[in-house]
Design brief:
single chain; about 325 residues; alpha/beta; Rossmann fold; 2 domains; eight-stranded mixed β-sheet; four-stranded antiparallel β-sheet; binds adenosine-5'-triphosphate; binds magnesium ion
Protein backbone atom coordinates (compact mmCIF):
# COMPACT_ATOMS: atom_id res chain seq x y z
CA UNK A 1 0.00 0.00 0.00
CA UNK A 2 1.26 3.49 -0.80
CA UNK A 3 2.05 5.93 2.01
CA UNK A 4 -0.82 8.33 2.69
CA UNK A 5 -0.05 12.01 2.12
CA UNK A 6 -1.05 12.75 5.69
CA UNK A 7 -1.65 10.19 8.40
CA UNK A 8 -3.06 11.14 11.79
CA UNK A 9 -2.73 8.41 14.39
CA UNK A 10 -4.49 8.46 17.74
CA UNK A 11 -4.19 12.25 18.06
CA UNK A 12 -4.91 13.74 21.48
CA UNK A 13 -4.86 17.49 22.13
CA UNK A 14 -5.12 19.13 25.54
CA UNK A 15 -5.86 22.79 26.17
CA UNK A 16 -5.16 24.65 29.40
CA UNK A 17 -8.30 26.58 30.32
CA UNK A 18 -9.62 28.44 33.40
CA UNK A 19 -11.83 25.44 34.11
CA UNK A 20 -8.95 22.95 33.96
CA UNK A 21 -7.27 20.81 31.32
CA UNK A 22 -9.65 20.40 28.37
CA UNK A 23 -9.30 17.22 26.30
CA UNK A 24 -10.32 18.88 23.05
CA UNK A 25 -9.28 16.04 20.71
CA UNK A 26 -9.41 12.46 21.94
CA UNK A 27 -7.93 9.68 19.85
CA UNK A 28 -8.55 10.94 16.33
CA UNK A 29 -7.09 8.81 13.51
CA UNK A 30 -7.42 9.20 9.77
CA UNK A 31 -5.48 9.15 6.53
CA UNK A 32 -5.60 11.71 3.77
CA UNK A 33 -4.57 10.55 0.31
CA UNK A 34 -3.94 12.67 -2.76
CA UNK A 35 -7.23 13.71 -4.32
CA UNK A 36 -9.33 12.80 -1.26
CA UNK A 37 -12.23 15.02 -0.38
CA UNK A 38 -13.07 14.64 3.29
CA UNK A 39 -15.73 16.54 5.21
CA UNK A 40 -15.44 16.97 8.98
CA UNK A 41 -18.74 17.91 10.58
CA UNK A 42 -19.99 18.40 14.10
CA UNK A 43 -21.47 20.95 16.45
CA UNK A 44 -19.62 23.97 17.72
CA UNK A 45 -16.86 23.02 20.16
CA UNK A 46 -16.55 19.39 19.00
CA UNK A 47 -12.85 19.82 18.16
CA UNK A 48 -12.86 20.26 14.37
CA UNK A 49 -10.66 23.36 14.21
CA UNK A 50 -8.28 22.15 16.90
CA UNK A 51 -7.78 18.90 14.93
CA UNK A 52 -6.87 20.90 11.81
CA UNK A 53 -4.67 23.28 13.75
CA UNK A 54 -2.79 20.35 15.31
CA UNK A 55 -2.11 18.91 11.84
CA UNK A 56 -1.02 22.29 10.49
CA UNK A 57 1.16 23.17 13.49
CA UNK A 58 -1.05 26.14 14.36
CA UNK A 59 -2.25 25.24 17.84
CA UNK A 60 -2.72 28.14 20.25
CA UNK A 61 -0.03 28.54 22.93
CA UNK A 62 -2.19 27.00 25.64
CA UNK A 63 -2.76 23.82 23.60
CA UNK A 64 -0.49 20.85 22.93
CA UNK A 65 -0.52 17.47 21.26
CA UNK A 66 -0.42 15.28 24.36
CA UNK A 67 -0.10 12.01 22.43
CA UNK A 68 -0.44 10.51 18.99
CA UNK A 69 1.47 10.97 15.76
CA UNK A 70 1.10 12.98 12.58
CA UNK A 71 2.93 11.79 9.47
CA UNK A 72 3.29 13.95 6.38
CA UNK A 73 4.55 12.07 3.34
CA UNK A 74 5.55 9.28 5.70
CA UNK A 75 7.63 11.54 7.97
CA UNK A 76 6.77 11.83 11.65
CA UNK A 77 6.54 15.59 12.04
CA UNK A 78 7.39 15.49 15.74
CA UNK A 79 10.89 14.35 14.74
CA UNK A 80 11.46 17.44 12.55
CA UNK A 81 12.62 20.87 13.63
CA UNK A 82 10.26 23.79 13.12
CA UNK A 83 11.81 24.85 9.81
CA UNK A 84 11.78 21.38 8.23
CA UNK A 85 8.23 20.87 9.43
CA UNK A 86 7.06 24.17 7.93
CA UNK A 87 8.74 23.33 4.64
CA UNK A 88 7.13 19.90 4.47
CA UNK A 89 3.73 21.34 5.33
CA UNK A 90 4.03 24.14 2.77
CA UNK A 91 4.82 21.57 0.07
CA UNK A 92 1.80 19.50 1.02
CA UNK A 93 -1.00 21.65 2.38
CA UNK A 94 -2.68 24.97 1.74
CA UNK A 95 -5.19 26.38 4.15
CA UNK A 96 -8.13 28.68 4.13
CA UNK A 97 -9.96 29.68 7.26
CA UNK A 98 -13.21 31.43 8.06
CA UNK A 99 -11.40 34.71 8.66
CA UNK A 100 -9.21 34.33 5.56
CA UNK A 101 -10.41 37.65 4.22
CA UNK A 102 -9.39 39.42 7.43
CA UNK A 103 -5.99 37.75 7.18
CA UNK A 104 -5.21 39.56 3.90
CA UNK A 105 -2.62 42.30 4.32
CA UNK A 106 -4.39 45.64 3.79
CA UNK A 107 -1.27 47.53 2.62
CA UNK A 108 0.09 45.06 0.05
CA UNK A 109 -1.56 44.69 -3.36
CA UNK A 110 -3.48 41.45 -3.80
CA UNK A 111 -1.24 40.41 -6.70
CA UNK A 112 1.91 40.85 -4.63
CA UNK A 113 0.36 38.83 -1.81
CA UNK A 114 -0.32 35.94 -4.18
CA UNK A 115 3.18 36.27 -5.70
CA UNK A 116 4.91 36.07 -2.32
CA UNK A 117 5.16 32.27 -2.00
CA UNK A 118 6.14 31.72 -5.67
CA UNK A 119 8.81 34.43 -5.28
CA UNK A 120 10.25 33.61 -1.89
CA UNK A 121 9.48 29.91 -1.36
CA UNK A 122 9.44 28.53 -4.86
CA UNK A 123 12.40 30.74 -5.84
CA UNK A 124 10.85 32.33 -8.91
CA UNK A 125 12.12 35.60 -10.38
CA UNK A 126 10.00 38.72 -9.88
CA UNK A 127 8.42 38.47 -13.32
CA UNK A 128 7.86 34.70 -13.06
CA UNK A 129 6.17 35.18 -9.69
CA UNK A 130 3.96 37.87 -11.21
CA UNK A 131 2.98 35.46 -14.00
CA UNK A 132 2.25 32.74 -11.44
CA UNK A 133 0.05 35.15 -9.48
CA UNK A 134 -1.83 36.21 -12.60
CA UNK A 135 -2.47 32.62 -13.61
CA UNK A 136 -3.61 31.76 -10.07
CA UNK A 137 -6.01 34.72 -10.21
CA UNK A 138 -7.40 33.34 -13.45
CA UNK A 139 -7.55 29.84 -12.00
CA UNK A 140 -9.77 31.06 -9.14
CA UNK A 141 -12.04 32.85 -11.58
CA UNK A 142 -10.90 36.46 -11.21
CA UNK A 143 -11.42 38.09 -14.58
CA UNK A 144 -9.24 40.95 -15.75
CA UNK A 145 -6.39 39.76 -13.51
CA UNK A 146 -3.84 42.20 -15.02
CA UNK A 147 -5.73 45.28 -13.91
CA UNK A 148 -6.76 43.83 -10.55
CA UNK A 149 -3.22 42.69 -9.68
CA UNK A 150 -2.30 46.03 -8.14
CA UNK A 151 -5.52 46.63 -6.22
CA UNK A 152 -5.62 46.50 -2.42
CA UNK A 153 -7.99 44.15 -0.59
CA UNK A 154 -10.43 46.93 0.40
CA UNK A 155 -10.93 47.76 -3.28
CA UNK A 156 -12.41 44.31 -3.97
CA UNK A 157 -15.78 42.79 -3.06
CA UNK A 158 -16.05 40.10 -0.36
CA UNK A 159 -16.40 37.36 -2.98
CA UNK A 160 -13.27 38.47 -4.84
CA UNK A 161 -11.30 38.78 -1.62
CA UNK A 162 -12.27 35.20 -0.76
CA UNK A 163 -10.98 34.14 -4.19
CA UNK A 164 -7.73 36.00 -3.48
CA UNK A 165 -7.44 34.08 -0.21
CA UNK A 166 -7.94 30.82 -2.11
CA UNK A 167 -5.34 31.88 -4.70
CA UNK A 168 -2.86 32.53 -1.87
CA UNK A 169 -3.68 29.12 -0.36
CA UNK A 170 -2.96 27.52 -3.74
CA UNK A 171 0.19 29.54 -4.45
CA UNK A 172 2.56 26.95 -2.93
CA UNK A 173 1.06 24.25 -5.20
CA UNK A 174 -0.40 22.21 -2.33
CA UNK A 175 -1.75 18.72 -2.82
CA UNK A 176 -4.37 19.23 -0.12
CA UNK A 177 -6.40 22.30 0.75
CA UNK A 178 -7.59 22.48 4.35
CA UNK A 179 -10.75 24.57 4.54
CA UNK A 180 -12.19 25.55 7.92
CA UNK A 181 -15.66 27.03 7.45
CA UNK A 182 -14.38 29.05 4.49
CA UNK A 183 -17.81 30.15 3.36
CA UNK A 184 -19.70 30.96 6.56
CA UNK A 185 -18.74 34.65 6.47
CA UNK A 186 -20.04 34.99 2.90
CA UNK A 187 -23.53 35.59 1.60
CA UNK A 188 -25.37 32.65 0.11
CA UNK A 189 -24.70 33.45 -3.56
CA UNK A 190 -20.98 33.92 -3.00
CA UNK A 191 -20.88 30.78 -0.84
CA UNK A 192 -22.25 28.84 -3.79
CA UNK A 193 -19.66 30.38 -6.13
CA UNK A 194 -16.78 29.51 -3.80
CA UNK A 195 -18.02 25.93 -3.46
CA UNK A 196 -18.29 25.65 -7.25
CA UNK A 197 -14.73 26.91 -7.53
CA UNK A 198 -13.47 24.32 -5.03
CA UNK A 199 -15.30 21.61 -6.95
CA UNK A 200 -13.66 22.75 -10.21
CA UNK A 201 -10.23 22.77 -8.59
CA UNK A 202 -10.84 19.23 -7.44
CA UNK A 203 -11.96 18.08 -10.84
CA UNK A 204 -9.40 19.94 -12.93
CA UNK A 205 -6.27 19.63 -10.85
CA UNK A 206 -6.98 16.68 -8.55
CA UNK A 207 -6.65 18.91 -5.50
CA UNK A 208 -7.48 17.10 -2.27
CA UNK A 209 -9.78 18.89 0.15
CA UNK A 210 -10.44 18.60 3.87
CA UNK A 211 -13.53 20.66 4.53
CA UNK A 212 -14.67 21.52 8.06
CA UNK A 213 -18.24 22.71 8.38
CA UNK A 214 -21.45 22.75 10.40
CA UNK A 215 -23.34 22.49 7.15
CA UNK A 216 -24.05 18.93 6.12
CA UNK A 217 -25.45 20.03 2.75
CA UNK A 218 -22.01 21.40 1.84
CA UNK A 219 -20.27 18.10 2.52
CA UNK A 220 -22.87 16.41 0.36
CA UNK A 221 -21.86 18.67 -2.51
CA UNK A 222 -18.10 18.51 -2.40
CA UNK A 223 -16.95 15.56 -0.29
CA UNK A 224 -16.60 11.85 -0.98
CA UNK A 225 -16.24 10.85 2.63
CA UNK A 226 -17.30 12.30 5.94
CA UNK A 227 -16.11 12.21 9.55
CA UNK A 228 -18.61 13.16 12.20
CA UNK A 229 -17.02 14.64 15.31
CA UNK A 230 -18.54 14.71 18.77
CA UNK A 231 -16.84 15.62 22.06
CA UNK A 232 -13.35 15.48 20.56
CA UNK A 233 -13.71 12.16 18.76
CA UNK A 234 -14.83 10.82 15.42
CA UNK A 235 -18.07 9.00 16.18
CA UNK A 236 -18.93 8.09 12.59
CA UNK A 237 -16.87 7.83 9.43
CA UNK A 238 -17.90 6.67 6.00
CA UNK A 239 -18.76 7.56 2.44
CA UNK A 240 -20.96 10.63 2.11
CA UNK A 241 -23.77 8.82 0.32
CA UNK A 242 -23.86 5.92 2.79
CA UNK A 243 -23.71 8.26 5.78
CA UNK A 244 -26.51 10.45 4.48
CA UNK A 245 -28.72 7.54 3.47
CA UNK A 246 -28.10 5.34 6.46
CA UNK A 247 -26.33 6.94 9.42
CA UNK A 248 -24.93 4.43 11.91
CA UNK A 249 -24.51 6.74 14.91
CA UNK A 250 -27.50 8.39 16.63
CA UNK A 251 -25.63 11.71 16.70
CA UNK A 252 -25.27 11.67 12.90
CA UNK A 253 -28.89 10.64 12.60
CA UNK A 254 -29.93 13.58 14.78
CA UNK A 255 -27.65 16.02 12.93
CA UNK A 256 -29.18 14.99 9.63
CA UNK A 257 -32.63 15.57 11.06
CA UNK A 258 -31.50 18.94 12.40
CA UNK A 259 -30.30 20.07 8.97
CA UNK A 260 -32.87 22.16 7.15
CA UNK A 261 -33.75 20.37 3.92
CA UNK A 262 -33.19 22.80 1.05
CA UNK A 263 -35.75 20.91 -1.04
CA UNK A 264 -38.54 21.48 1.42
CA UNK A 265 -40.61 24.62 1.00
CA UNK A 266 -41.07 24.90 4.75
CA UNK A 267 -37.99 23.91 6.71
CA UNK A 268 -38.72 21.57 9.54
CA UNK A 269 -36.39 22.73 12.26
CA UNK A 270 -35.32 19.92 14.52
CA UNK A 271 -32.83 20.39 17.27
CA UNK A 272 -30.79 18.08 19.39
CA UNK A 273 -31.76 18.69 22.98
CA UNK A 274 -29.07 18.92 25.66
CA UNK A 275 -25.42 19.87 25.51
CA UNK A 276 -22.14 18.19 24.68
CA UNK A 277 -20.19 17.05 27.76
CA UNK A 278 -17.63 19.16 29.57
CA UNK A 279 -14.30 17.73 28.42
CA UNK A 280 -12.37 19.04 31.42
CA UNK A 281 -13.99 16.15 33.33
CA UNK A 282 -13.36 12.46 32.61
CA UNK A 283 -15.76 10.95 30.05
CA UNK A 284 -17.71 8.05 31.52
CA UNK A 285 -19.72 5.92 29.12
CA UNK A 286 -20.88 7.20 25.75
CA UNK A 287 -20.58 11.01 25.72
CA UNK A 288 -23.73 11.28 23.58
CA UNK A 289 -25.83 9.08 25.90
CA UNK A 290 -27.60 11.95 27.77
CA UNK A 291 -28.93 13.27 24.44
CA UNK A 292 -29.50 9.98 22.65
CA UNK A 293 -32.87 8.59 21.57
CA UNK A 294 -31.46 5.05 21.40
CA UNK A 295 -29.70 5.02 24.78
CA UNK A 296 -29.78 1.88 26.92
CA UNK A 297 -28.26 1.05 30.29
CA UNK A 298 -25.05 -0.44 28.87
CA UNK A 299 -24.25 2.85 27.07
CA UNK A 300 -23.43 4.42 30.43
CA UNK A 301 -20.59 2.05 31.36
CA UNK A 302 -17.74 2.41 28.87
CA UNK A 303 -17.07 4.76 25.96
CA UNK A 304 -17.85 2.93 22.71
CA UNK A 305 -14.88 2.51 20.34
CA UNK A 306 -15.11 3.43 16.65
CA UNK A 307 -15.75 0.10 14.94
CA UNK A 308 -16.56 -1.01 11.40
CA UNK A 309 -20.18 -1.52 10.52
CA UNK A 310 -20.72 -2.35 6.86
CA UNK A 311 -18.87 0.26 4.79
CA UNK A 312 -18.89 2.81 7.66
CA UNK A 313 -17.46 3.05 11.16
CA UNK A 314 -19.48 3.96 14.21
CA UNK A 315 -18.73 4.57 17.89
CA UNK A 316 -22.10 3.32 19.12
CA UNK A 317 -22.98 0.12 20.97
CA UNK A 318 -26.37 0.19 19.26
CA UNK A 319 -25.24 0.79 15.70
CA UNK A 320 -26.51 -2.65 14.61
CA UNK A 321 -30.03 -1.27 15.13
CA UNK A 322 -29.60 1.78 12.94
CA UNK A 323 -32.20 0.66 10.40
CA UNK A 324 -34.89 0.90 13.08
CA UNK A 325 -34.08 4.37 14.36
CA UNK A 326 -36.52 6.26 12.17
CA UNK A 327 -39.35 4.59 14.09
CA UNK A 328 -37.94 5.13 17.57
CA UNK A 329 -36.37 8.59 17.68
CA UNK A 330 -39.24 10.54 19.18
CA UNK A 331 -36.90 11.68 21.97
CA UNK A 332 -34.74 13.66 19.49
CA UNK A 333 -37.22 16.54 19.63
CA UNK A 334 -38.68 18.94 17.15
CA UNK A 335 -40.29 22.32 16.90
N1 LIG B 1 -7.55 28.96 22.44
C1 LIG B 1 -8.38 28.23 23.18
N2 LIG B 1 -8.38 28.31 24.53
C2 LIG B 1 -9.24 27.56 25.27
N3 LIG B 1 -10.09 26.67 24.76
C3 LIG B 1 -10.14 26.54 23.43
C4 LIG B 1 -9.29 27.30 22.56
N4 LIG B 1 -9.57 26.96 21.28
C5 LIG B 1 -10.53 26.02 21.35
N5 LIG B 1 -10.87 25.77 22.62
C6 LIG B 1 -11.86 24.79 23.08
O1 LIG B 1 -11.55 23.54 22.47
C7 LIG B 1 -12.75 22.85 22.11
C8 LIG B 1 -12.71 22.52 20.65
O2 LIG B 1 -12.69 23.75 19.93
P1 LIG B 1 -12.71 23.85 18.34
O3 LIG B 1 -12.40 25.26 18.02
O4 LIG B 1 -11.85 22.80 17.76
O5 LIG B 1 -14.24 23.54 18.02
P2 LIG B 1 -14.95 23.47 16.59
O6 LIG B 1 -15.48 22.09 16.43
O7 LIG B 1 -14.01 23.98 15.55
O8 LIG B 1 -16.19 24.46 16.80
P3 LIG B 1 -16.80 25.55 15.79
O9 LIG B 1 -17.73 24.77 14.93
O10 LIG B 1 -17.53 26.49 16.70
O11 LIG B 1 -15.69 26.21 15.04
C9 LIG B 1 -13.91 23.76 22.51
O12 LIG B 1 -14.35 23.36 23.79
C10 LIG B 1 -13.26 25.12 22.61
O13 LIG B 1 -13.92 25.94 23.55
MG1 LIG C 1 -14.00 25.65 14.35
Amino acid sequence: MSTPLISVQDLNVEIKTNRGLLKAVRGVSFDIDAGDSIGIVGESGSGKSITLKAILGLLPNNARVSSGKIFIDGKDISSLDKRARRGLLCDTAGMIFQDAIAALNPVISVGDQIAEVPRFRLGQSKSEARQSALSLMEQVGISDAESRFSLYPHQLSGGLRQRIAIAIALSGKPKILFCDEPTTALDVTIQAQVLRLLLELRKNSGLGIVFVTHDLAVTNEICDSIKVMYAGRFVEAGGVRATFNSPTHPYTYSLLKAAPDPDEAVHRLFFITGEAPNLTAPVIGCPFAPRCFAVEADCLGAEPPLLKIGQSSSACFKSENHNTWAASDSKSGGK
